[in-house]
């Protein structure tokens, strides 16, 4: 069971201890530091679940080089931590992506990660071998960021090639004003997503 690295002082629904269903939840965390707002958002999503979490900033993940080696082998020829994440992607029922928003975009490490899904594109004739999945996108930011359609579009392009549809989208855009765990409304929206996707029982 996932355990938060810190105790989040949440109220209402976020304080409840909830058991989880058998749905396999994979979380791809695109934040760049511990203790930040995005990491708190990941903690909030995973609290009380059996989520498998990859903090990709801490992993050895090289960018796709467009070598097309995967066209011949059916798998990525780069030897790094993505080999573990590919397996997690294929067994997951729901994949959640959490990311800060920089210049109206996903973080560089998240875009780097998404580029490595090219292996599925070049082998798209066998996409039926990957079970249908749902995805969540949770964004965090502040300042003058307005174009949240851009990071959403970036992710949706990648989701198409892993047999995945976006089923939930939330954004906390008050990072310059308050801590995410103090926003009761946002906390309740996250819990609603958990219930709607039957992550909780």
In short:
The protein is an alpha/beta fold. It is 31% helix and 16% strand. It is globular and about 50 Å long.
What does this structure look like?
With 201 residues, the chain is an alpha/beta fold. It has one domain (12-196): 3-Layer(aba) Sandwich (Rossmann fold), CATH 3.40.50. The protein is 31% helix and 16% strand. The chain has 7 helices and 5 strands; from the N terminus they run βαβααβααβαβα. The protein has helices at residues 37-46, 69-73, 82-91, 108-115, 118-122, 149-159, 184-196; strands at residues 25-29, 52-55, 94-100, 133-140, 164-172. The protein has a 5-stranded parallel β-sheet with strand order 2-1-3-4-5, sandwiched between helices. It starts with 24 loop residues before the first strand and ends in a 5-residue tail after the last helix. 36% of the residues are buried. Mean pLDDT is 84; it is low at 3-20.
Which ranges are low-confidence, i.e. pLDDT below 50, for 5 or more consecutive residues?
3-20
Mean pLDDT: 84
CATH superfamily descriptor: Flavodoxin domain
> For the record, what CATH class applies?
Alpha Beta
Number of strands: 5
The side-by-side strand order for the widest beta sheet comes to: 2-1-3-4-5
Q: Any guess at the CATH architecture?
A: 3-Layer(aba) Sandwich
Content-based structural category: alpha/beta
Total domain modules: 1
Strand content: 15-25%
- Helical residue percent? 25-40%
Question: What's the structural blueprint in terms of helices and strands?
Answer:
Layout: E1 25-29, H1 37-46, E2 52-55, H2 69-73, H3 82-91, E3 94-100, H4 108-115, H5 118-122, E4 133-140, H6 149-159, E5 164-172, H7 184-196
Parallel strand pairs: 1-2, 1-3, 3-4, 4-5
């Amino acid at each position: 069971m996932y355990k938060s690295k810190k105790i989040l002082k949440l109220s209402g629904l976020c304080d409840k201890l909830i058991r989880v269903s058998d749905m396999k939840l994979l979380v791809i965390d695109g934040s760049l530091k511990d203790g930040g707002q995005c990491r708190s958002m990941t903690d909030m999503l995973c609290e009380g679940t059996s989520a498998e979490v990859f903090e990709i900033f801490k992993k050895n993940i090289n960018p796709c080089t467009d070598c097309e080696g995967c066209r011949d082998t059916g798998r990525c020829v780069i030897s790094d931590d993505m080999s573990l994440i590919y397996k997690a992607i294929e067994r997951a029922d729901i994949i959640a992506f959490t990311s800060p928003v920089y210049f109206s975009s996903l973080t560089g490490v998240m875009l780097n990660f998404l580029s490595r899904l090219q292996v599925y594109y070049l082998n798209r004739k066998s996409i039926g071998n990957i079970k249908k999945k749902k995805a969540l996108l949770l964004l965090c930011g502040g300042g003058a960021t307005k174009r949240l359609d851009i990071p959403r579009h970036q992710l949706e392009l990648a989701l198409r090639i892993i047999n995945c549809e976006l089923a939930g989208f939330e954004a906390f855009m008050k990072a310059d004003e308050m801590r995410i765990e103090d926003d009761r409304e946002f906390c309740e929206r996250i819990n609603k997503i958990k219930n709607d996707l039957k992550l909780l029982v």
